[in-house]
Structure of Phosphoribosylaminoimidazole-succinocarboxamide synthase:
Amino acid sequence: MSDISDRQQLYEGKAKIVYTTDDPEVLLAYYKDDATAFNAQKRGTIKGKGEINNTMSGHLFKLLEAAGVPTHYIDTPSPNEMRIKRVKIVPVEVIVRNIAAGSLCKQTGIPLGTVLQPPLVEFCYKNDQLGDPLLTRDRLLVMNLATPEQLKSMEDLSRQIDQILSDFFSECGITLVDFKLEFGITSDGQLILADEISPDTCRLWDQAETDPNLRVMDKDRFRNDLGNVESAYQQVLARILSRLG
């Protein structure tokens, strides 16, 4: 870890601490081992998670950049740290669902494992106090959370990202079930991908496993007390590095 004692802490979230740097357009994100679920009602620690998620996100951001997706990624100066472009986060989370799981099944009764064609794209209000509620486009617009153009760009980019990541994870023997994305606006007005891409933000299933518990390779292992959380995260990173190596 680099010396951050002289940095100003800008923000601390559930998984990361963000610091300023000498460049006003560049920030430093420190990935923590802290783990939360159910809107932070469940808390814990996943040993090594910060380093794993930072490394994994860096590689996946570079993969997306190479495919033409703009991201906030600059580089990873240390195992737990990522330099990122400063953005104003759009308070809208984009959920992309390829297979029915989690809240979608609970809210709709759609059976777990149902393949969704085309993939379902949903918008949630990024607000912990309200529980990150699912919102319609019209509600998002009434609340002035994003412009119609921004919502269209976010959906288009999310579908592009889904195709790239689904193909890549499949090459790693992993099914990308669903995932969450966040976007930000740069100082010059560009909409780019932000936050992270990791087992914290993606639901990932091992294609070699059919058991509904054994196949889980993401934060659901922590969320649902399935055990072997650290090893699942490590396995995802190992497969990614092996594929990219």
